[in-house]
Automatic annotation (TrEMBL):
<feature type="binding site">
    <location>
        <position position="652"/>
    </location>
    <ligand>
        <name>Zn(2+)</name>
    </ligand>
</feature>
<dbReference type="InterPro" id="IPR006276">
    <property type="entry name" value="Cobalamin-indep_Met_synthase"/>
</dbReference>
<feature type="binding site">
    <location>
        <position position="628"/>
    </location>
    <ligand>
        <name>Zn(2+)</name>
    </ligand>
</feature>
<comment type="similarity">
    <text>Belongs to the vitamin-B12 independent methionine synthase family.</text>
</comment>
<feature type="binding site">
    <location>
        <position position="548"/>
    </location>
    <ligand>
        <name>5-methyltetrahydropteroyltri-L-glutamate</name>
    </ligand>
</feature>
<feature type="domain" description="Cobalamin-independent methionine synthase MetE N-terminal">
    <location>
        <begin position="4"/>
        <end position="308"/>
    </location>
</feature>
<feature type="binding site">
    <location>
        <position position="652"/>
    </location>
    <ligand>
        <name>Zn(2+) 1</name>
    </ligand>
</feature>
<feature type="binding site">
    <location>
        <position position="471"/>
    </location>
    <ligand>
        <name>L-homocysteine</name>
    </ligand>
</feature>
<comment type="pathway">
    <text>Amino-acid biosynthesis; L-methionine biosynthesis via de novo pathway; L-methionine from L-homocysteine (MetE route): step 1/1.</text>
</comment>
<dbReference type="InterPro" id="IPR038071">
    <property type="entry name" value="UROD/MetE-like_sf"/>
</dbReference>
<feature type="binding site">
    <location>
        <position position="471"/>
    </location>
    <ligand>
        <name>L-methionine</name>
    </ligand>
</feature>
<feature type="binding site">
    <location>
        <position position="114"/>
    </location>
    <ligand>
        <name>5-methyltetrahydropteroyltri-L-glutamate</name>
    </ligand>
</feature>
<feature type="binding site">
    <location>
        <position position="586"/>
    </location>
    <ligand>
        <name>L-methionine</name>
    </ligand>
</feature>
<feature type="binding site">
    <location>
        <begin position="502"/>
        <end position="503"/>
    </location>
    <ligand>
        <name>5-methyltetrahydropteroyltri-L-glutamate</name>
    </ligand>
</feature>
<feature type="binding site">
    <location>
        <position position="592"/>
    </location>
    <ligand>
        <name>5-methyltetrahydropteroyltri-L-glutamate</name>
    </ligand>
</feature>
<dbReference type="InterPro" id="IPR002629">
    <property type="entry name" value="Met_Synth_C/arc"/>
</dbReference>
<keyword id="KW-0028">Amino-acid biosynthesis</keyword>
Length: 747
């Protein structure tokens, strides 16, 4: 019989218990012992759910207090000097992730970026010139012991050495660090062997990339060195192996896991793998909520089962970290949708049902067929976007021609924010009361207007030049628009971890998308009525709405994105007619959506850029279009970023100390740029000197006439005390530098 397992389970809890515990700990409301107890309870619950579902192994090592790459760094003793102390403990982890403050001294958090092509974030490892690796953090070994003591059959999830090295930052040639890193991995695997761990799922997702030859060459000797301790299940996901198939069978491993959802594999390729290998196939989509077509998989895998026998393993395509936890909690979804969805807990059942069907159980075979019939019967008819509108989506004038017409009377180095302001308990209570029917719409609107008025007043007192309404009415930058567009389904508890305690609740694209009425104009118009300064209209871009939702699987990402862009084009037109002079269309996900294989980038960038331009195409030359992109590495897609033709782009650069601007300078980016001057993910308040230093670095690459001053990202996760303090410093730094530049011009 085939074996069933998953690559990982959501760690946050079905009602975000981990999020709440982390935030209470950071606020000093609970101690470390209480926090640890919440983590232990969640781990035991999740292991028990896997066991009860009928999986053959429970996965250990997938739990993390912030993110699994950071946990790996602590495991291997990779701690930046500024956070190093005698022993590595849980506070060390949080200092690296969030920054630390000790009296007048502060230590910046490590850089954070996207985990491959997902909306999950990881803390980038920082390697030193003479980096030493040593086993320094016992969390993994403790959790193995914990699971075994509970009577579970354990499979360990471990980030592989080559992927870990690839993800890190190092001034020299990273592969020079590999020999010592492998020695540490040998000790790690030997310790797991002592704990009687049989299988280690060693994850090398960089195999989905088109790797440089020297990195490909490193795999075979690396795994020869690691072989001989625990059995190694080489694991990759998010795409197929491509050209790596040519040397794959030379690896000294005991099995391989392949993601068949993201990249199908020919049966002959699978049967040609070494005969002693386990072949684990990811057939349940770990990145979407749609129920698997089990009848299709049964037909696809039955011939393989006959030839592979016990060597066939069934698994999730990737970790279920990227899926919501439990569909059973969703009491407000229609019966039709509930029958078509499967969250993480339900995906366990799908795997076990398919395993039973492959073993020939007639009841399981019938259940697979019935499920697939229900899915096919309820699928909506696909309707493509308006091709003619997409092809003609171009603003009539160039940036150089538009810019003089955008009469905004702004000073040199104009200051602004990215869009959101603190989501206070009062704001959340107002939205909750309205949603639950405890207050009428009239009262709701009055309360939200009072929060907008407060945000405008605070910004004017701080001295910002371009204001925002603060987004008090928005629960999330994507979910809010999904609520007002037709074609989406929304959940109550469909939370997914983005990083640390930050969770998002993606909407689900269930039908064709359209905009029945204006979405943002009344709130933006009210804010503008309170001030003579320009107030930005705030929209989430079409690529980001698509990428941060669970898409339909019967339409391409391009088709879905173009449908959204057509709806947003209408919204841009309405905002403009209501008096908005600046409209920001945020696209933080545009880099994340790139195919993992560089050879496939061109097609994606063509339609992604085209969709943004389609959304902005109703803007008049007098309307200034902004966009925001955060935690993305743009160096290699700068032509596409420029092709967006936004009048101003704001980007995350504070944690990297403006390093990204080297590429913008070399490329000679032609439009306005607002590089982030402080990290909003840290509670630390920046100094005026620190912001001034970053702005002077920016001026080395960007003319002052095109430089904007803003934080890295939105401020919804900060409180007002932190927000006002940081923005006041930012405005003071910009004002002082503005005076200095004017003085130098006169001289």
């Amino acid at each position: 019989m085939a074996q069933a397992h998953i690559l990982g389970y959501p760690r946050i809890g079905d009602k975000r218990q981990l999020k709440r515990a982390l935030e209470r700990y950071w606020q000093g409301e609970i101690d470390q012992t209480q926090l640890q107890a919440v983590g232990s309870e969640l781990r035991h619950r999740h292991w028990q759910q896997q066991k009860q579902a009928g999986l053959d192994y429970v996965t250990v090592g997938d739990f993390a207090w912030y993110d699994h790459v950071l946990a790996t760094s602590l495991l291997l003793g990779v701690v930046p000097k500024r956070h190093r102390k005698e022993t590595i403990d849980l506070q060390t982890l949080f200092d690296i992730a969030r920054g630390s403050q000790d009296g007048c001294c502060s230590a910046a958090a490590s850089d954070m970026t996207k985990w491959f092509n997902t909306n999950y974030h990881y803390l980038v490892p920082e390697f030193e010139q003479y980096q030493k690796f040593e086993l320094s953090w016992t969390q993994l070994f403790d959790e193995v012991e914990e699971a075994q003591a509970a009577g579970h059959r354990v499979k360990v999830s471990l980030l592989g050495p080559l992927t870990y090295l690839w993800l890190g930052r190092y001034d020299g040639e990273k592969l020079r660090l590999l020999p010592e890193l492998l020695s540490t991995y040998q000790r790690l695997l030997a310790k797991l062997k002592q704990q009687q761990v049989q299988w280690v799922q060693i994850e090398e997702p960089i195999l989905a990339l088109e790797l440089p030859q020297e990195w490909q060459n490193a795999f075979i000797p690396a795994y020869q060195q690691l072989h001989g301790q625990c059995k190694l299940l080489l694991t990759t996901y998010f795409d197929g192996l491509g050209s790596h198939w040519s040397w794959l069978e030379q690896l000294a491993v005991d099995g391989i896991h392949l993601d068949l959802v993201a990249g199908d594999v020919d049966d002959q390729q699978l049967l040609g793998l070494p005969r002693h290998w386990v072949i684990s196939l990811g057939i349940v989509n770990g990145r979407n909520v749609w129920a698997a077509d089990l009848a299709k998989w049964l037909a696809r895998l039955s011939p393989l089962q006959q030839q592979l026998g016990f060597r066939l393993w069934l698994g999730s395509s990737c970790s279920l970290l990227h899926a919501p936890v439990d569909l059973e909690l969703e009491t407000e979804l229609t019966d039709e949708h509930r029958q078509r969805f499967a969250f993480a807990k339900q995906k366990l059942d799908e795997l076990v049902l398919l395993k039973r069907a492959l073993a020939g159980e007639s009841e399981a075979i019938a259940a697979c067929q019935q499920r697939s019939q229900r899915l096919a019967a309820k699928a909506p008819a696909p309707v493509p976007a308006n091709t003619q509108a997409v092809e003609s989506a171009v603003r009539p004038l160039s940036y150089a021609e538009r810019s003089p017409q955008q009469q905004l009377n702004l000073p040199l180095l104009p200051t602004t924010t990215i869009g959101s302001f603190p989501q206070t308990n009062a704001i959340r209570a107002t939205r909750a009361d309205f949603k639950a029917g405890r207050i009428a719409e009239t009262e709701y609107r009055l309360q939200i207007q009072s929060h907008i008025a407060e945000a405008i007043q605070r910004q004017q007192e701080i001295g910002l030049d371009v204001l925002v309404h603060g987004e008090a009415e928005r629960n999330d930058m994507v979910e809010y628009f999904a609520e007002h567009l037709q074609g989406f389904a929304l959940t109550q508890f469909g939370w997914v971890q983005s990083y640390g305690s930050r969770c998002v609740k993606p909407a689900i694209v269930v039908d064709n998308i359209s905009r029945p009425e204006a979405i943002t104009t009344s709130w933006t118009g009210y804010a503008q009525s309170l001030t003579d300064k320009p107030v930005k209209g705030m929209l989430t871009g079409p690529v980001t709405i698509m990428a941060w939702s669970f898409p339909r699987e019967d339409l391409s990402r391009q088709q879905i994105t173009e449908q959204i862009a057509l709806a947003l084009r209408e919204e841009v037109g309405d905002l403009q007619r209501s008096g908005a002079r600046i409209i920001q269309i945020d696209e933080p996900a545009i880099r994340e959506g790139l195919p993992l294989k560089r050879s496939q980038w061109g097609d994606y960038l063509d339609w992604a850029v085209g969709s943004f331009k389609l959304a902005a195409s109703s803007a008049l030359p007098q309307t200034q279009i902004h966009t925001h992109m955060c935690y993305s590495e743009f160096n290699d897609i700068l032509p596409a970023v420029a092709a967006l033709d936004a009048d101003v782009i704001t980007i995350e650069t504070a944690r990297s100390e403006m390093a990204l601007l080297d590429a913008f300078g070399e490329f000679d980016y032609p439009n306005g740029i607002g590089p982030g001057v402080y990290d909003i993910h840290s509670p630390n308040i920046p100094s005026e000197q620190a912001i001034t230093t970053l702005l002077k670095k920016a001026l080395q690459h960007i003319p002052a006439e095109r430089l904007w001053v803003n934080p890295d990202c939105g401020l919804k996760t900060r409180n007002w005390q932190q927000t006002e303090a940081a923005l006041t410093v930012m405005v003071q730094a910009a004002s002082a530098l503005r005076r200095q530049l004017k003085h130098e011009q006169k001289a």
